[in-house]
Write a structure and sequence with these properties.
Blueprint (H helix, E strand, L loop, with lengths): L3 H27 L18 H28 L12 E3 L8 E3 L4 H30 L4 H20 L2 H10 L6 H21 L1
Antiparallel strand pairs: 1-2
Helix pairs in contact: 1-2, 1-6, 2-3, 3-4, 3-5, 5-6
């Protein structure tokens, strides 16, 4: 059975490949250039494998880093008491009556995780995206640095329109074992946005 890190990386690769393909479909659909032989209102599908490979390499580099960061964050700042991380129930000594008490969310740890996720992790991921994709395309490190200087804040601002809410829900409502799935599903749409940004 593969490790959780391998599973998360595989899922992220599949979702980012899907995002890249969807982005190409959207770009093709929105393109004003229509071949005269085509009866459809958009360009015939002609997938370019290069951006798909670039997104795959980016995902293979960043997913393990993000996975380990999230694991460390949860370990250092548990959202619930540590007796059973998969349960939201807390067993108490009730003299054999079988009483189960709801675990209480650690608000301070949850807020700290959201802040760390939306500052440190968001900044690292943004810089990595703005550096890795251009370098894979053949840009020099100087050109990548210029791209980081010009693209960092606009991309962070766009991310802040989506990811804080996802983090809040992930850390408060979504069970620990489902967080990767929820993040990956939202990431599918975000990946389309990034793939379209990378295409420009």
């Amino acid at each position: 059975m593969p490790s959780p890190l391998v599973t998360a990386t595989t899922q992220a690769c599949i979702l980012n490949i899907t995002s890249s393909i969807l982005a190409q479909l959207l770009i093709s659909y929105r393109s004003p250039t229509v071949l005269s032989t085509s009866s459809s209102p958009y360009n015939p599908l002609n997938l370019d494998p290069t951006p798909i490979v670039h997104f795959l390499v980016f995902t293979l580099i960043l997913t393990p880093v993000n996975f380990l960061f999230q694991q460390s964050l949860e370990s250092a700042l548990p959202g619930y008491p540590k007796d059973d991380p998969k349960s939201t129930k807390l067993k108490v000594d009730d003299g054999g009556k079988g009483v189960v008490v709801e675990k209480k969310l650690n608000i301070q740890n949850t807020v700290l995780k959201i802040v760390a996720d939306q500052t440190l992790a968001a900044a690292i991921n943004t810089v990595a995206f703005l550096a890795i994709i251009p370098i894979l395309r053949g840009a020099s490190t100087g050109q990548a640095w210029e791209g980081i200087k010009h693209g960092f804040w606009p991309l962070m601002v766009n991310g802040y329109k989506l990811w804080p809410l996802v983090s809040l829900l992930n850390y408060t409502v979504v069970p620990v074992e489902k967080r990767v799935v929820v993040g990956s599903l939202v990431g599918l749409g975000w990946g389309v946005f990034l793939a379209m940004k990378a295409a420009n």
